[in-house]
Each structure stands twice: as C-alpha cells, then as structure tokens.
C-alpha cells in the first residue's frame, strides 16, 4: 500500500472507557471479522487481560476502509493502558501519526487518559477527541465535550460522539481518521528502518515482532539486523495482522506488520529497537530506544520448598515473553530458597505472580515490594540496594531513593483527604488545577517507596474509588532512611527487614512485632520479638512460655490414638521453619507479610 493510503492510529483511553469494545466495532464495520466470528474483546487474547479487563500487550490490526473514493489501510495499534508500561505505550504511540482520545461520556477524563495524552502530544500525534458510551442514560456528552475541548483546544462541537456498544458514530469516526490523520512519511529508497513497538512470545512460532516501517522496505528471506546489538537474523515470515497473521511480500514505508525470525526470546527483539537489513544497513537508529528498567523488587518463594525447581522453570518461561522481568536466586532464613525479582511496577508484579499461580499452578509467597536505593558508605563506596538484607548497616553515610511525579485526578470533594494521604507519604505538592468545576488534578513529587506500599489502595478507599493515579519516574533524592530489622529471640528474620523513613521506623516496628506476637504460637520458652535499627531496639513484644504436651491430653487413652497424635504433630512440624530455636509455622510468615 502506498503511504498516501495508510493511516496509523491508536486509541488512548482510561481502563473501562471502552477501548476494546470500540476496537471490536471497528473490526466488524470494516469487515475484517465477520459477525459470526465476533466475540467480545476480540483483540484481548490473554486470559488475565480479559478477566481483569486490562490490556497488557499491544497488538496491531490492519483494516480496509473505503473513503473519498479510495481504499485506505487503517492500522490500529493497541496500547497498554497502565502506568507500569509507560515505555511500551510511548513506543506504540511513536508508531502512529494520530490518536483517538476516547473518553467515557458518563465519567470524563481520568489520570491515565491524561498521562497518555501528554505522551501522544510529545510524539506530535494528531488527536481526535471522542466521547464514548453515549447510549448510556447517565451520559452527559455536552458537559464532557466542553471538558475535552477545554483540555486540547478546539470547539466542543468537534468532539465526536459514539457508542462502541451500538456502533453509533463509528463509521463517521473511521472517515474522520482518514481525513484528519496525516499519511506516514518516509524515504522508500533509504536503507530500511523499522521500529519495534511490540514483541510477543508464541510457543509455536517463537517471537513475533510487531514493527512500523519508517524508511525503505523489508522482504521475506532477507537478513535483518538489530541496531542496538548488531545481531542478525533471517527473516522467515513477514506480514500484516487483519487480525489473523497474513504473510505478505514485504512491508514498505509507513506500513505496520509483524515479522518472525528464528528468535526464541523477546530479549533478542526488544521494544524500541530499530531493525535494518544486513545487506544495506542504516547508519542511525530511530530515536527513543531504552532498556526496560525494573523499579520495584520483591522476593518470590514457593510455599512448598520442593517447588523451587518448578518456580525457576516457570520464570525462565515467562522471561521469554517479558523482557522487563528480571530475577536471580536468593535465600531467606524465613522462607528458604526463592528468587529476587525486578518489576516495572506494582501491576507488573501482580501480573507475574498471578501468571505463576495460574499458568504454572504454583503456591507462592511474595515479600513486601522494595525500590532501588543508592547507598554511599562511610568509606565512599556506592552500593545499590534492592533488598533490605543488602543494606550496609552501620556504614551508611547517605541514602538516596527514587522519586516520581504523581498526578492524581479526583472529584473536588475528596481533595482534602487526598492531600492528607499524600502528605503522610512524604509527598510535596507541585501544583493543583481545576479541570472542570467538579474535578481537580493534584500533582505531587513523592518517593516511589511510599507509593509501592499500598498507596493506590488507600487512595481508592479514601475516595470511594473515584480518584485515579498516574506517575512517572523523576530522578532521586537523598532521604533520612533506616533499615528496621525484626528479631525473634535475638535472631533476625530477614523477610521482615524493611527500609523506611526514620519517622516511620517506630510505627513499622510496633506493627510487625504486634502482628507476630499474635501469629506465632507459644514455645517451651519465652520468646522476645523485637524491632531494631542496627543495635538499637525500638519496639518489643513477648510470647510467653508454654509447656505443650500433646500426650498429656489423652492420658490413659489407647496407644494407637497416641501414636496418631504424634504422627500428626510430626506432620505439622514439617511446615515449621526454625528461626534460631524458635519454631514458626509457615502460615505465620505468610500472614505477617500479607498483612491480614
Ligand atoms: P477498555 O478497558 O477501555 O478496553 O473497556 P472495554 O471495552 O472493556 O469496556 C468496559 C465496559 O464498558 C464493558 O463492560 C463494556 O461492555 C462497556 N462499554 C464499552 N463501550 C460501551 C458503550 O458504548 N456503551 C455502553 N453502554 N457500554 C460500553
Ligand atoms: Mg480493553
């Protein structure tokens, strides 16, 4: 297809505003999916995505559309909607010339919509504002059309009104895409340059790489080269998705499609990288490539120690499809053998642990998430700490922690409680803006470490679910942080160590010691539970001694019953972990870590 007849676009929307449903209608109206084959959320393939209603991986679909007497190829590039995947969103946007800004006509603009809109504007995309769900009785399109026009400029009358559910307005939207979104530009005679905006592992076909051609052409059987590593691969198949993969004779300027090489691991085909040909390589890579950087770390342990090998295999498998997942073996006194894993954010952590449980049937325990601290010691050495147990206790000169810029959108009635929450999380207010009479945007600078610790849950519960949050990394800052250890009879329980702000150390210490006192059964001797910063004890609880004699309970009973009881006690012991001399049931660790 010549570039003049190509339109590349994506849909920017907050979760639940109807992106998948609108995509379904477009597939149907353009005829690429027949009514018979249509099922809801056609493009959301992963089970977890469908159940949780989130899009994890983006996809691209090509749809033919007749307009102005020609047949256009509309390439719809689906972007992940969540803050954890900002980098992937930015690469998907970079593959487009335009974006539909889709807003629920009963809800209005949300924080995620805004964050992605800013990214789209940074990439110079043409924005088409659209209100969705106008079939809903609660829809208030006049009001939100004004809000949208206020946000991006222009006339409220230019805001298109559609229903992804009934299909109303969707044809008009397709015509408008053709009319308003610029055709792609590129040099057909230059050395090939294609940008990877997604890379998906498929157990049958290996890695499927989604690309946007910028210059030149790629054809099958050609040797391609990854510009970040100069590694070369043979092109086994190249094609477009409409929406099933369909091989073509190649891809030219402005086209969007997929390609398959022999590669088995997405790390060899990285989002953001530029593909060129080995025969006639381009000299400059396309801008914007960075390696995915984990921001949040957590220990993952099998509840049953004998599942360790299975856990390793499962992580190896997931890694094939997720270049941003990192892990290395670690051991814990309390939890045994496991892995220290790095994630892009909290949702990413949740997705991975859920996939491990669901796809690999593993029972796991996850330690409290931690961020990356840069510690300078008194000898001037710099240590990167992603696990509290690596903290160079007693030798710390300075600590710096990652900071994010957070944007919170909330109805104005909740501004007070949201500000209180942000302040309690060491946030400093950067700005506040009324979006409409009803809705306010609050911008804060906040330590990431405070956000990973149940901030989102707190925000939701304080605002009855109405507030939305988005954040982006904004460097780091020095902070007065300390490591709090939890000791059982003088022995450290590594899984409970935490790096916290000095002012919160006491609160963390009392919370954990109290929790453990309730969870750990009495032993034959008194067990002190202490919280400490270095050698200084900041909180203490006691578990009183108890003589536990199972056999005494059934004095005089028959011997086989006694034997059974002994067996039962032995069984129970297997699930016990020893911390020094103290026996702790595994469940106590799990309960203490999960906080219920
Ligand atoms: P996404 O998270 O943006 O992909 O949103 P979905 O497409 O999954 O839609 C979220 C919910 O809104 C689903 O329950 C849809 O059925 C519903 N929905 C989507 N579009 C419309 C619409 O135009 N009208 C109505 N009434 N409901 C819609
Ligand atoms: Mg969706």
TrEMBL record:
Record carries keyword Cell inner membrane: no
Species of origin: Microbacterium salsuginis
Name of the gene encoding the protein in the UniProt record: lepA
PROSITE patterns: G_TR_1, G_TR_2
Highest taxon of the lineage: Bacteria
EC number(s) reported in the record: 3.6.5.n1
Family according to the record: Belongs to the TRAFAC class translation factor GTPase superfamily. Classic translation factor GTPase family. LepA subfamily.
Enzyme class: hydrolase
Domain Tr-type G: 4-185
Protein name: Elongation factor 4
């Amino acid at each position: 297809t010549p570039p003049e007849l190509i339109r590349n676009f994506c849909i920017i929307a907050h979760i639940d505003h109807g992106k998948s449903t609108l995509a379904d209608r477009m597939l149907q109206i353009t005829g690429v999916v027949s009514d018979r084959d249509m099922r809801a959320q056609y493009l959301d393939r992963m089970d977890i995505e469908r159940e949780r209603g989130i899009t994890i991986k983006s996809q691209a679909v090509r749809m033919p559309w007749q307009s102005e007497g020609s047949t256009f190829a509309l390439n719809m590039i689906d972007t992940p909607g969540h803050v954890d995947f900002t980098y992937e969103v930015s690469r998907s946007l970079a593959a487009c010339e335009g974006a539909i800004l889709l807003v629920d006509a009963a809800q209005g603009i949300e924080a995620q919509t805004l964050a992605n809109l800013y990214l789209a504007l940074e990439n110079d995309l043409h924005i088409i504002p659209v209100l969705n769900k106008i079939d809903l009785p609660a829809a208030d399109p006049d009001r939100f059309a004004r809000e949208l026009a206020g946000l991006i400029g222009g006339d409220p009358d230019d805001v298109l009104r559609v229903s992804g559910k009934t299909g109303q307005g969707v044809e008009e939207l397709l015509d408008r895409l053709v009319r308003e979104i610029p055709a792609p530009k590129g040099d057909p005679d230059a050395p090939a340059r294609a940008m990877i905006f997604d890379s998906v592992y498929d157990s049958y076909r290996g890695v499927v790489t989604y690309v946007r051609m910028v210059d030149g052409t790629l054809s099958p059987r050609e040797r391609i080269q990854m510009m970040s590593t100069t590694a070369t691969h043979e092109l086994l198949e190249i094609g477009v998705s409409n929406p099933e993969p369909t091989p073509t004779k190649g891809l030219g300027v402005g086209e969007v499609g997929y390609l398959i090489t022999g590669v088995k691991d997405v790390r060899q085909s990285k989002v953001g990288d530029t593909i060129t040909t080995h025969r006639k390589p381009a000299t400059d890579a396309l801008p914007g490539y960075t390696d995915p950087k984990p921001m949040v770390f957590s220990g993952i342990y099998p509840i049953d120690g004998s599942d360790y090998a299975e856990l390793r295999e499962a992580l190896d498998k997931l890694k094939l499809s997720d270049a941003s997942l990192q892990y290395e073996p670690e051991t814990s006194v309390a939890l045994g053998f496991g892995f220290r894993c790095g994630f892009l954010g909290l949702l990413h952590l949740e997705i991975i642990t859920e996939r491990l449980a669901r796809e690999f049937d593993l029972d796991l325990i996850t330690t409290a998430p931690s961020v990356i601290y840069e510690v300078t010691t008194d000898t001037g050495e710099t240590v990167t700490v992603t696990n509290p147990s690596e903290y160079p206790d007693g030798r710390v000169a300075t600590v710096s922690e990652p900071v994010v810029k957070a944007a919170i959108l909330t109805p104005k009635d909740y501004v007070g409680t949201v500000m209180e929450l942000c302040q309690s999380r060491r946030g400093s207010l950067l700005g506040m803006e009324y979006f409409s009479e009803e809705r306010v945007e609050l911008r804060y600078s906040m330590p990431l470490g405070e956000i990973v610790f149940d901030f989102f849950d707190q925000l939701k519960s304080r605002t009855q679910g109405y507030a939305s949050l988005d954040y982006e990394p904004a460097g780091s800052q020095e902070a007065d942080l300390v490591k709090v250890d939890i000791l059982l009879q003088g022995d450290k329980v590594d899984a409970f160590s935490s790096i916290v702000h000095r002012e919160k150390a006491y609160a963390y210490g009392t919370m954990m010691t109290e929790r453990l006192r309730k969870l750990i059964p009495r032993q034959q001797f008194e067990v002190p539970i202490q919280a400490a910063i270095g050698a200084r004890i900041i909180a203490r609880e006691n578990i009183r001694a108890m003589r536990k004699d199972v056999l005494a309970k059934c004095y005089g009973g028959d011997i086989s019953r006694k034997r059974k009881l002994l067996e039962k006690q032995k069984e129970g012991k297997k699930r016990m972990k020893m911390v020094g001399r103290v026996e702790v049931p595994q469940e106590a660790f799990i309960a203490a870590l999960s906080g219920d």
